[in-house]
Amino acid sequence: DAMVIQNPRYQVTQFGKPVTLSCSQTLNHNVMYWYQQKSSQAPKLLFHYYDKDFNNEADTPDNFQSRRPNTSFCFLDIRSPGLGDAAMYLCATSRDPGIETQYFGPGTRLLVL
Amino acid sequence: SQQGEEDPQALSIQEGENATMNCSYKTSINNLQWYRQNSGRGLVHLILIRSNEREKHSGRLRVTLDTSKKSSSLLITASRAADTASYFCATDAGETSGSRLTFGEGTQLTVNP
């Protein structure tokens, strides 16, 4: 029944060591989003894909990249994680632009040592 | 600056009481949504209210929207211990490339048995 799946649920990496978080969906939705949520804060949109079109938020650091090889999968790459990148990373989907409800995965909590 | 601001930041009530959370925002919106987040988990969509609607109900949830005051409220009636969670409002300005949500800082609700 899982609709938006994120792996792993917990990820530990070292300062400066590249890390990839993954998200998959069984909903066949066209739009996929990545949010960063730090402790006791609001989720913050990093970027989203509408189909293959990538839409980056203006204040998303260059350290964060994303790939969407097909409809079902989307990856978040952090090229050189810093201590400030420790957070919960949430993946979400929506069916189409104009279909507003977003469906969230359980999140991946990233710890940077 | 953050689009949505919520108050109170934290709310503690007894089971059976009603809980009211408020959200204010700054710019024009297409719709406003409320999400719930259990500790360490992803967000779950609760209810969406469009800019031309004033009130909406879903089970024990009642949402109001006042576009002239740029504010919304979420009322949970007859609260249960299982309602303990963080509640976020999110505004959608309505864009063709995908629903971009801007989240408020959230209200942490604790319902005591």
Q: How big a fraction of the residues of chain B is strand? A: over 45%
Q: Structural class of the secondary structure composition of chain A?
A: mainly beta
Major sheet description of chain B: 6 strands, mixed
Radius of gyration of chain B: 14 Å
* Coarse morphology of chain B: globular
Choose one word for the global shape of chain A.
Answer: globular
| Unreliable parts of chain B | none
* Radius of gyration of chain A over all CA atoms, rounded: 13 Å
Number of helices of chain B: 0
Please tally the β strands of chain B and state the result: 11
Calculate the terminal CA-CA distance of chain A, rounded to whole Å. 34 Å
Order of helices and strands of chain A: EEEEEEEEEEE
Can you summarize the main beta sheet of chain A? 7 strands, mixed
Mean pLDDT of chain A: 93
- Measured as a percent range, the helix fraction of chain A is under 10%
Number of strands of chain A: 11
Proportion in β-strands of chain A: over 45%
Helical residues, percent of chain B = under 10%
Mean pLDDT of chain B: 90
Helix vs. strand class of chain B = mainly beta
Structural account:
With about 110 residues, chain A is mainly beta. Chain A has strands spanning about 5, 10-15, 20-25, 30-35, 45-50, 55, 65, 75-80, 85-95, 105, 110. In chain A, strands 2, 4, 5, 6, 9, 10 and 11 form a seven-stranded mixed β-sheet that branches. In chain A, strands 1-3-8-7 form a four-stranded antiparallel β-sheet, with no helix packed on it. The radius of gyration of chain A is 13 Å and the shape is globular. The relative contact order of chain A is 0.34. The model of chain A has no long low-confidence stretch (mean pLDDT about 95). Chain B is built from no helices and eleven strands. Chain B has strands at about 5, 10-15, 20-25, 30-35, 45-50, 55-60, 60-65, 70-75, 85-90, 100-105, 105-110. Chain B is globular, with a radius of gyration of 14 Å. Classes of the chains: A mainly beta (about 110), B mainly beta (about 110). The interface of A and B includes residues 31, 88, 92 and 97 of A.
